Amino acid sequence: MKVEILNKSQEKIWDEFVESHELGTLQQTSRWGHFQAKIPTRGKYWILALMDKEKIIGGTMLIYHGMANKASWLYCARGPLLDYNAKDFSEKMKIILERIKKIAKTENSVFVRIDPPLAEKDYQKWPRLNGFYTSHLGFQPEDTLMLDLTKSETEILAQMKPKGRYNIRLAEKHGVTIRESDPKDSKQFAKDITEYHKILHETTMRDKFYGHRKNVYTDMIRTLFPQTKLHLAEYQGHIIAGLIATYHKDIATYYYGASSDQFRNVMAPYLLQWQVAREAKSQGFKFYDFMGIAPTDDKNHPWAGVTEFKRKFGGIEMSYLPAKEYPFQKLLYLVYRFYKFIRK
């Protein structure tokens, strides 16, 4: 076995591998790498393919993240893609890590983060990962809520909390409308993304979290469309809520959302979520992932407010194991961890 860094002409075979792997997500595809490369603080990616002769048997998309003083860290978003129950897992992971270490040396990387989507119920502890530290600083949520779209619409509505169903009907009664923004219509899309970013700023100020520059959302949708779409809720000619959803395999995911401080009484976000979930169901997706909720026993969690909103839709709560980080420069890594801790 050996690790090869794939070039542009080989990305198609990598994407086919991601599609076939049970843990494969959009974040491991080459298109995700293309999107990440457009973000100035990231800018580059590598596809590390673990080869057995001429066949890909594992690997990861690896993203560069810039830090201060020309340092960096590396990220295997929802990877590496391996069989974590296999007897030879440790051997394969070691081979991949050795190749990452070479990149880390060139890029002055402090650590690498991995966070494969391993469900907590299936993996009571991380399998055989020497030298890694558990981290709760990851980008991917450890707890989430999933709507089962294989059920009928009547059944999905029935399992919602009464207030959730009521707010959907209320938005319909007020005449809120939902539409998808088409990035191929450049002029209209530019207006839509500007309005979305404007209400996103309102949302970040209100709910005290960080957003990205407008170009990040623009590039995300244009690069990943139709696997990423912008959905908007309008009322009396105004865009008052929006969400960016991703679509991969059998899961539609609510990735980013925003709602205006205006017309909050018409409950547009409820109808928006419901219509996007319904559309995903009609296209054959089996699950709608609300992309992150606060743990049940943590009422002071930063996501407590948005979690109350999401739980009104019912669904199945599930947990993933936390991220793991392997330091290449231990002292700087400890400084980084301390800095992140005091910023919480």
CATH homologous superfamily heading of the largest domain: Gcn5-related N-acetyltransferase (GNAT)
Average pLDDT score: 94
Q: Strand-and-helix sequence, N→C?
A: EHHEEEHEEEHHEHHEEEHEHEEH
**Beta-sheet strand percentage?**
25-35%
- Rounded to an integer in angstroms, the radius of gyration calculated over CA atoms is 21 Å
User: Tell me, what is the CATH class of the largest domain?
Assistant: Alpha Beta
Strand order of the largest sheet: 1-2-3-4-5-14-6
Largest sheet: 7 strands, mixed
Describe the structure concisely.
The protein is an alpha+beta fold.
List keywords for this structure.
2 domains; 344 residues; 10 helices; alpha+beta; Aminopeptidase; 7-stranded mixed β-sheet; single chain; 14 strands
Task: Describe the model.
This protein folds into two domains: 2-138 and 323-343, Gcn5-related N-acetyltransferase (GNAT) (Aminopeptidase, 3-Layer(aba) Sandwich); 143-319, 3-Layer(aba) Sandwich (Aminopeptidase), CATH 3.40.630. Helix 2 (30-37) packs antiparallel against helix 7 and helix 5 (162-174) packs across helix 8. It is α+β, with helices and mostly antiparallel strands. Strands 1-2-3-4-5-14-6 form a seven-stranded mixed sheet, with helices on both faces. The longest helix is centred in the middle third of the chain and has 22 residues, at 186-207. Strand 10 (238-248) and strand 11 form a beta hairpin. Helices cover 37% and strands 26% of the residues. The chain has helices at residues 11-20, 30-37, 89-107, 153-158, 162-174, 186-207, 214-224, 268-282, 304-311, 330-343; strands at residues 2-5, 45-52, 55-66, 72-76, 109-114, 133-135, 143-148, 177-181, 228-235, 238-248, 251-259, 287-289, 316-319, 323-327.
